[in-house]
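Quick one: structure for this chain?
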Amino acid sequence: MPETTPWTQHGLALGFIRGGIYYIDRTVRGRRFKMSTGCRTAAAAFQEYTKFEQDPFHYSPRANAGTSWRDAVLDFLKFQQFTQGRTAKYVEEQARYLERFGQRKAFWGLDSFTRDDIEAFLADLQRGEVTERLVVARDENGEPLLDPGTGKPKKVRAKAPGVYSRNRYLAALTKFMNWARDHSRTQNDADKKVRQVREPKQKTSKRPVEPKRWRATQEHLGEKWRLAQEVLVGSGLRYGELAALQADDLHDAENGGGALVVPESKGRIGRDIPVSAHVLGAARQLLKLGGVPDDNGSQLDNRLEAACRAAGVKRYTAHELRHTYATTCLLNGMDLLELQRRLGHADLTTTQIYLHVVRSVQGDKRQYAPI
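Got it. Here's what it folds into:
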């Protein structure tokens, strides 16, 4: 039998500690209560004791006290993949977040961590002390720096992530703990006491890519990426929506044009987007070539960067092609509500931002023609 030590809090004897686990051992109105809290830290155990003290005679110890973090995470990921049908990419992303939590001793058990442990982890995350992600070092012009010894691109540690990364880690933890509570793995609700931080407004420009600029890069892109660029400019799709496009989503119209259908998914608004025959043909040809990978536009952005250098024009990203579509539509007389519908914006104020962009490029209106 492991050695026991007394467990006291604020001068009150609550029970004992055995094998690192805190046990409640109290007598209330002549009845003795002796049970495990399943907790390995004083803070978490006292939190459990508080629940016991509120109604000792109806208190039920957790069904699976002391469930290990690793075992629970494995079961959670299986549930996500096989029961909820999540994609392999999504499951891998959740596994990565939860694995980094589990590297901390405080998170070795579902009942052992507290709000302070979560806040400490997130603080370290924002200081860049959690991940060891390496990225290619670049000079002030964006050119990769080469390692003198090997001649290969030099790798450096990535900068500390911002608020958005903090919120994503916390969201992954909350989703996991909600599952654990629903499946009687724990009663720990420390994650509910940590709030997401409001993300600062991004000062990103929604200026469009001038046609002469994106057309200049066409000859420097492979066929698949050239077609992808034409579809994005001519439809305003988000890159992820382009990656999810299927043959059944392409429809011909009697007037010679057609439409791209975007199904509702993950909170995104489903819609159909009228397009020209040229854009519809480009989409069909792109699908014949296998489409584009669902990688948040990274591969296309890398190719656009190289194509911009080769063409001698200012760099732009795949998402800026969406801004180009929106601006072109307004310059050619489209109603703001119709543009909101086509872009899939839930709030009209998001679409209204493009009105300011239109005013800034009004003098170049003739160069923005639909494709």
